[in-house]
Design brief:
Largest sheet: 7 strands, antiparallel
Number of helices: 20
Radius of gyration: 37 Å
Shape: elongated
Strand order of the largest sheet: 30-31-32-33-21-35-34
Structural class: alpha+beta
Oligomer: single chain
Number of domains: 4
Strand content: 15-25%
């Protein structure tokens, strides 16, 4: 066969262009680069069996062997043209794992110290094998002068070196290389060249071709439904009709988390393909188990039933999944005889039954559970959002300094609830009994004290209980009551309907507060505002107000902390609180575009507004003063957040949020009156 017969030679004035198919091969080997020569255009003559093209009186020698231009074997061609070394390392490690090195440890990367992989025998820990991989044409130099020399310099102990390359190595070259390694370094060498790799991948390890679609790619290895059609029965094929899309996609995610390799009809890229033919091909070549989702709608789909009949031709391949009961008379005999996994009761019960069935059938997992969770997480996170750089991290947690003593205030008579609520706007106290109040500081004159010369005081740390209540519970309540007092002093209002604090509107719907950021810059942030719910003529304005919600706790070291969460209060334009589902939907309209930095800014703004511009929130006088720092808890993290990547992810999630929270077809007036707001909780 004449060399380069697959190429086209275009002759133009003083320039020769040589192009070869495919384009990927041109870019790799440089065939599409023009060859500058000062020659006149002359007829071209091919010399069969030679490696040259002769043009006119001057010969342009293209020093390429016949097998380097275009191999007749697709495996060899893909290995020759591939350039991603990291993917080649993964392929080689998989091949070695299938050839007896089951416990191989891939080490490739920038700090592998000359080792692409390592294997230690379980039977003899002293039997150590080091692996080196190469895609370079100067394989001999790479092996002897670089890999072997580096391994010896690093002082690695080994008995055997396995070298894998994509070059063609002749038998004399193999023998010479083994002798050189034995004499110079004292190791045994096992060499896998291009042809030996091909034999492995075409034989017992042919399933690895489907697992490396970036190497063995179309058109030599076709893809259907986003998966290679090379035979490798390692995939759970989930088939369904549109009516069962929710269950099928949920099942695919859960199986992925469990470590299996699922393929789902509803999420696969089938555009431009015959969906029925693609699924049939995957059933025949890739399915370790076929999972058809059955429902009355599925039982009426002729294509799905035909695919089920195809899968039932292989014993043990089909596991029916029942989304809802189906009349058995509508199913084929073989399919009707199979007991389905029942998802019509509870999806979680069906998933457990399916996982048990796969486990008992010895269906191998592609990855372990932890890796499966990471893969499922990455499917929602398009790109990494962290960097290997230290960063200071802040939390919505603030340190509290507590007075050492608790005062007992005995009353002449019990105060009613309204009088007690009014007193608590200026004085923090806890009720121990109808006539006994506990506090950090002395009560105001309006409290009806039983006349005594001196109010008794005790150390809360020295007594586990005070007046029959646990001391720590009393301190927790007094800290929270003290923060309520500070809020009232700062102009924060109380909502009796929702039993929460909030910043009221002042001169208009929008109210901003000033604050100093942790980086030292001064800024402002909104604590009230007005939005619209709905679209067009159906848009209805509403208002929102932010408010603090406090939770008090104590760590193992005895230090008190308060966690401040933000509550979003929703009202109409007259200030009347809304009810039911209307709260949650409008709250999402307000906060759907608030991410980490927006919540953090509002947290700082609210805490500093309560302190009235100070560094501390102070309640009390002298030694009886309770203080809360407005500086949040912080620590150094060894990794940092890539804000540019977060912004890109945020843009994507904003689009998703806009779709998720658009309720154009739902009118609040049509909602049942007994609807309960399940999301009426403060936000972290």
């Amino acid at each position: 066969m004449a060399p380069f017969q697959c190429a086209e030679l275009f002759l133009t004035d003083r320039r020769v262009h040589l192009t070869a198919a495919p384009r990927a091969a041109q870019a790799q080997d440089g065939y599409n680069r023009p060859l500058e020569r000062g020659i006149r255009p002359t007829p071209v003559a091919h010399r069969s069996g030679q490696n040259h093209h002769w043009m006119g009186s001057g010969a342009i020698i293209l020093a390429r062997r016949v097998h380097d231009s275009m191999s007749a074997d697709p495996i060899i061609y893909c290995l020759q043209q591939f350039t991603d070394y990291r993917q080649f390392e993964r392929l080689c490690s998989d091949v070695m794992a299938g050839l007896g090195y089951a416990g191989i440890d891939p080490l490739g990367g920038t700090s592998d110290r000359g080792r692409d992989a390592l294997h230690v025998s379980r039977d003899d820990p002293a039997a150590v094998t080091i692996f080196a991989y190469s895609m370079r044409s100067d394989w001999r130099r790479k092996l002897l002068e670089e890999d072997c020399t580096r391994i010896r310099e690093e002082g690695h102990a080994l008995n055997k070196l396995v070298f894998v390359c994509t070059s063609t190595v002749t038998p004399p070259q193999k023998d010479d290389a083994k002798q050189q390694v034995r004499e110079r370094f004292g190791w045994e060498l096992e060499l896998y060249d291009l042809e030996r790799l091909r034999v492995c991948l075409a034989g017992t390890l042919r399933h690895l071709i489907a697992r490396h679609p970036s190497i063995f790619c179309p058109p030599w290895f076709p893809v259907r439904g986003g998966m290679s059609t090379a035979e490798s029965r390692d995939t759970l094929v989930i088939d369904h009709v549109p009516a069962d899309h929710a269950l099928a996609t949920w099942l695919a995610r859960r199986l992925s988390v469990a470590g299996y390799r699922p393929w789902c009809y509803g999420t696969a890229p089938l555009a431009g393909e015959s969906a029925d033919e693609s699924v049939r091909l995957l059933i025949e070549r890739r399915a370790s188990r076929y999972l058809p989702v059955f429902s009355p709608a599925a039982a009426e789909n002729a294509d799905l039933l035909a695919r089920c009949a195809l899968a039932c031709g292989t014993d043990g391949l089909t596991i029916p999944c029942s989304a809802s009961p189906v009349d058995g008379a509508m199913l084929a005999t073989k399919l009707r005889a199979l007991a389905p996994v029942r998802f019509d009761r509870r999806w979680s019960e069906g998933l457990k039954c399916l996982l048990d069935t796969l486990e008992s059938g010895a269906i191998p997992r592609g990855v372990d559970r932890e890796q499966g969770k990471a893969i499922a997480l990455r499917s929602y996170m398009p790109e990494p959002v962290t960097r290997a750089e230290p960063e200071r991290i802040f939390a919505n947690v603030f340190r509290v300094t507590v007075p050492p003593g608790v005062i007992r205030c005995e009353l002449e008579y019990e105060m009613d609830s309204s009088a007690l609520a009014e007193v608590r706007r200026t004085w923090a106290c806890a009720v121990a009994s109808p006539t006994m109040l506990l506090a950090f500081e002395k009560p105001p004159p309006s409290v009806p004290l039983l006349l005594k010369r001196r109010l008794p005081e005790c150390s809360w740390a020295a007594y586990p209980t005070i007046e029959g209540k646990r001391s720590t519970d009393i301190v927790k309540e007094l800290i929270k009551r003290s923060l309520d007092v500070a809020c009232f002093w700062a102009g924060v209002a109380w909502c009796a309907d929702r039993q929460t604090l909030y910043f009221p509107h002042t001169t208009g719907p929008q109210r901003n507060v000033s604050y100093r950021h942790v980086d030292g810059r001064n800024s402002r942030v909104g604590v009230t505002g007005e939005r619209s719910y709905g679209h067009g003529d159906r848009a209805v304005p509403f208002r929102y107000q932010l408010g603090p919600s406090f939770r008090v706790d104590r760590d193992d070291a005895g230090v008190w902390w308060v966690t401040m969460r933000i509550y979003v209060r929703i009202t109409d334009c007259d200030g009347l609180p809304l009810e039911g589902k209307a709260i949650g939907r409008r709250r999402k309209t307000v906060t759907k575009n608030w991410w980490n930095k927006e919540w953090f800014a509002r947290t700082l703004g609210i805490m500093q507004a309560i302190s009235r511009g100070g560094a501390l929130i102070e309640v009390g006088t002298g030694t009886r003063t309770l203080t809360v720092s407005t500086v949040p808890l912080a620590w150094e993290s060894p990794v940092s957040i890539d804000m540019a990547a977060v912004e890109r992810v945020g843009d994507f999630q904003e689009e998703m949020a806009a779709v998720r929270y658009t309720d154009e077809d739902v009118d609040d007036a049509d909602e049942p009156k007994e609807a309960v707001d399940q999301e009426d909780e403060p936000h972290e």
